[in-house]
Specification:
Strand order of the largest sheet of chain B: 3-2-6-8-9-10-1-11
CATH architecture of the largest domain in chain A: 3-Layer(aba) Sandwich
Helix content of chain A: 10-25%
CATH superfamily of the largest domain in chain A: Nucleotide-binding domain of ferredoxin-NADP reductase (FNR) module
Oligomer: heterodimer
Number of helices of chain A: 7
CATH class of the largest domain in chain A: Alpha Beta
Number of domains of chain A: 2
Largest sheet of chain B: 8 strands, mixed
Shape of chain A: globular
CATH topology of the largest domain in chain A: Rossmann fold
Largest sheet of chain A: 7 strands, mixed
Number of domains of chain B: 2
Strand order of the largest sheet of chain A: 11-10-9-8-12-13-16
Distance between the termini of chain B: 55 Å
Strand content of chain B: 15-25%
Number of strands of chain A: 16
Number of helices of chain B: 11
Largest interface: A-B, 50 and 61 residues
Number of strands of chain B: 13
Radius of gyration of chain A: 19 Å
Chain lengths: 283, 344
């Protein structure tokens, strides 16, 4: 048990004060999602890992945990992409280039990059799950020779909800990226795959010993994707998932993000499947 | 351990003496049946024989609401709230309450240590007092006796009509410098202060009970009676979860960010934007609260995170009893063990 006497005065931290960041660019990507590029004072790097999150603060409204969407290899600024579904995020829709937002973080554990070097990376992104995974994808692309295959499965409800379509086009054209996009429901102009994301998994040809899967999507998606990957015989320890919880403080205090006894903001949001299997509340 | 006798009539003089160190906070009567920890204005008004205060002592270190900052919407700037390090004496504290502060220390200072809590806690001194357990106290069942002195600087043990004062720490000794109403005494063991409410098992057996209790039918039985008001969390001396909210002035130019106690028993506690709720039912939340007290942190730290003050039970509007829940879980566990044995 941690004792008061063990804490030196300089170890007690002001945990709840944001750093004000300027929005240097912003763009509404779909009806619901907006993309922001932010700059820390003096253009310093955020110093994050792919998969980590920040607490975004708009005075008068509050704070919300938001995934970082840019790769750590991008210097001088970082990017967020925010779905407008909550009290804060709906207000953020009004924030444009030149406005300032408060940022705390980065927080949590991201993807274990050291364990991923030399491996085939299988990305499974459902809906806005692509936002945090884009950080990992772009990190792999910026260090392309350090990784094996890059397979990206991306599913959205319908074509109008597809995010980062410019980048999807670039990834589609690259011969060192295997991109498979599907939508639950197509429209007349849609020529790609139709069906939920798990329909893309059976036909994958995976090198099981070498493949590491990174999954992010709506809560309902995880069980089905994990089941499909297990039926491909991918070992549990090769599966990483990023879980959504209400990470209010980001520093392991406020209690809102607990999954059973685990603080999602401290031990996650990226978890190895082996570690969350025993947690009844996880999936 | 140094032991002195102190006359009941000299207690106000001791409180006044302690005031030289800093503000003294002690139990006071509040209404006909309730007690509250309040700053001492008149040492004669301090009540040393009380069962429990409504709000736990944690309110002094983790206030029910506290301002984190003032902000301006005009230029999007903010001014942090400084929490000064002030000396203070907490007088007339029960052993379970002291143990709850030691547990709060761990919760707020392990991992990333929080400055707000640290500053309030830094120069605090604690003077314990013995108590007579009522029908709700069960701290002995979680390993905390009436005379547990860990964490205190001084301790007052009621012996017939007067007190024996124990010096526990050097800081406690310093507090007494210049106080001349003490007479050296031989420690007396007080008999007959018994706990009426008991958990049937020793607390070191509870993690095993909880290991197999996750799907027990007991949770649904409790959830049926629970009204989900969250009083159990708000009166719990070791609950530390909080919420953070912004408040804007009518001028819409300035405002403040505040944090307030929150409650995992409230239905929206684990809800995320978009409506997904990860502990949607009262059953999930009741279970989570009990697991937080007897399993999750206990597995890491080896101690129950419940200190047996009995507040959650005494103040529950639905008469839900922590001890009864645990004894029900124990009974269900024994039944399951019995069936297993019979089958073999």
């Amino acid at each position: 048990m941690k004792r008061l006497q063990e804490v030196k005065s300089n170890e007690a931290l002001d945990l709840y004060y944001p750093t004000m960041c300027e929005i240097v660019d912003a763009k509404q990507l779909t009806d619901l999602e907006k993309w922001y590029e932010l700059k820390l004072p003096g253009g310093q790097d955020l110093g994050h890992e792919p998969g980590q999150f920040v607490e975004v603060s708009a005075f008068g409204i509050g704070e919300a945990p938001i995934s970082i969407s840019s790769s750590p290899s991008k210097e001088g600024s970082f990017e967020l992409c925010i779905r407008q579904v909550g009290t804060l995020t709906k207000v953020l829709k009004r924030y444009e280039k030149g406005d300032t937002l408060g940022i705390r973080g980065p927080f949590g554990k991201g993807y274990p990059i050291e364990k991923m070097y030399g491996k085939d990376i299988l990305i499974v992104a459902g809906g806005i799950g692509l936002v945090p995974l884009r950080s990992l994808i772009n990190f792999v692309l910026d260090n392309r020779q350090e990784f094996g295959r890059l397979i990206i499965l991306y599913g959205a409800k319908n074509p109008s909800e597809l995010l980062f379509t410019d980048e999807l086009d670039v990834w589609q054209r690259r011969d060192d990226v295997e991109l498979h996009v599907t939508v639950d429901q197509g429209d007349p102009s849609w020529e790609g795959n139709t069906g939920v994301i798990t329909t893309l998994i059976p036909e994958l040809d995976l090198n099981l010993n070498k493949t590491i899967a990174a999954i992010t999507g709506p809560p309902i998606m995880y069980k089905f994707v994990v089941m499909s990957l297990k039926s491909k015989q991918l070992p549990d320890s090769h599966i990483y998932l990023s879980l959504e919880r209400r990470m209010k403080c980001g520093v392991g205090k406020c209690g809102h993000c607990q999954i059973n006894g685990v603080y999602c903001c401290q031990e996650g949001p990226v978890f190895n499947y082996v570690d969350i299997k025993p947690l009844e509340e996880a999936l | 351990m140094e032991c002195y006798s102190l006359k009941q009539s000299d207690v106000p003089a001791l409180i006044d003496h302690l005031g030289a160190y800093g503000e003294v906070i002690a139990p006071h009567r509040k209404g006909d049946v309730s007690y509250s920890f309040e700053p001492v204005k008149d040492s004669e008004k301090v009540v040393l024989e009380y069962n429990r205060t409504l709000l736990p002592l944690k309110k002094c270190f983790l206030p029910p609401t506290e301002k984190l900052m003032d902000f301006s919407l005009k230029d999007m700037s903010y001014k942090p709230t400084e929490v000064p390090i002030k000396p203070a004496v907490y007088f007339g504290i029960h052993s379970y309450e002291m143990q709850s502060i030691l547990r709060l220390d761990h919760s707020m200072l392990s991992g990333k240590a929080e400055s707000n809590y640290f500053n309030r806690r830094k120069k605090s001194r604690f003077i314990g007092v013995s108590f007579s357990p009522d029908e709700y106290h069960f701290s002995e069942s979680v390993g905390i006796s009436i005379e547990e002195m860990e964490g205190f600087d001084l301790y007052l043990n009621k012996v017939s009509d007067d007190y024996q004062l124990y010096i526990i720490s050097d800081k406690g000794k310093d507090l007494l410098k210049g106080f001349d109403k003490l007479i050296q005494a031989e420690p007396i063991h007080v008999e007959g202060r018994e706990f009426n409410k008991k958990i049937r098992y020793h607390y070191n057996r509870l993690p095993r009970v909880f290991q197999y209790a996750y799907h027990s039918k007991v949770w649904a039985e409790v959830a049926e009676r629970c009204v989900g008001c969250g009083s159990c969390n708000l009166t719990c001396p070791t609950c530390f979860c909080f919420d953070v909210n912004d408040q804007v002035e009518v001028t819409a130019e300035d405002g403040m960010r505040r944090r307030s106690w929150d409650s995992c028993m409230l239905s929206t506690f684990a809800e995320v934007a978009g409506g997904e709720n990860f502990r949607e039912h009262t059953l999930n939340r009741t279970r989570h609260r009990l697991y937080r007290k007897f399993k999750y942190i206990t597995d890491e730290e080896g101690l129950p995170w419940c200190v047996g003050c009995g507040r959650c039970t005494a103040f529950c509007p639905a008469d839900i009893s922590m001890v009864d829940i645990i004894n029900d879980l124990i009974r269900e566990d024994e039944k399951a063990q019995f069936h297993k044995t019979v089958r073999v």
